[in-house]
């Protein structure tokens, strides 16, 4: 992921980089569930039991990024998909800071090849809040295989605005 971030044009991220449905999710912001989980308001699911707040946050907040409209070409697709994901992440993290008054929420962006004949590059974005009593969402990013993963904080977004 580090190489992708270094190569991609991610300066000047803005709302226009975000697909409309995801833009609406970011604009409507965050809320807190009865368990204290920080969740994107528009992504709330019907009440159900979760193992812990981490599972609730990553399950509710996690989505595959819209990519059907992106080119399939291996040299064109990655930077466009990454830019789209990062713009969404930064918009959501900015709203999280507004809602919660801190920058504790972290985003996780993963890029991997679909297990299909075309093997197109796809992505997933989720958000969670590190908690002292819960294991990290991904404890060793560098050891993840078959996918490029980045943990992103609001501080990282400043570099791309």
Indicate the topology.
Layout: H1 2-7, H2 20-28, E1 30-32, E2 38-40, H3 53-61, E3 63-64, H4 77-100, E4 106-113, E5 121-128, E6 148-152, H5 154-158
Antiparallel strand pairs: 1-2, 3-5, 4-5, 4-6
Helix pairs in contact: 2-4
Main sheet: strands, sense, barrel: 4 strands, antiparallel
The average pLDDT score comes to 91
Residue runs with pLDDT of under 50 for 5 or more positions: none
Radius of gyration: 15 Å
Distance separating the two termini: 19 Å
* Percent of residues in β-strands: 15-25%
Number of helices: 5
Reading side by side through the largest sheet, how are the strands ordered?
A: 3-5-4-6
- Provide the helix percentage: 25-40%
Structural class: alpha+beta
What characteristic shape results from the CA principal axes? globular
SSE run: HHEEHEHEEEH
Got a strand count?
Answer: 6
Q: Could you characterize what this model shows?
A:
- The chain is an alpha+beta fold and 161 residues long.
- It contains 5 helices and 6 strands; from the N terminus they run ααββαβαβββα.
- A 4-stranded antiparallel β-sheet has the order 3-5-4-6.
- A hairpin with a 5-residue loop joins strand 1 and strand 2.
- It starts with a helix and ends with a helix.
- The mean pLDDT is 91.
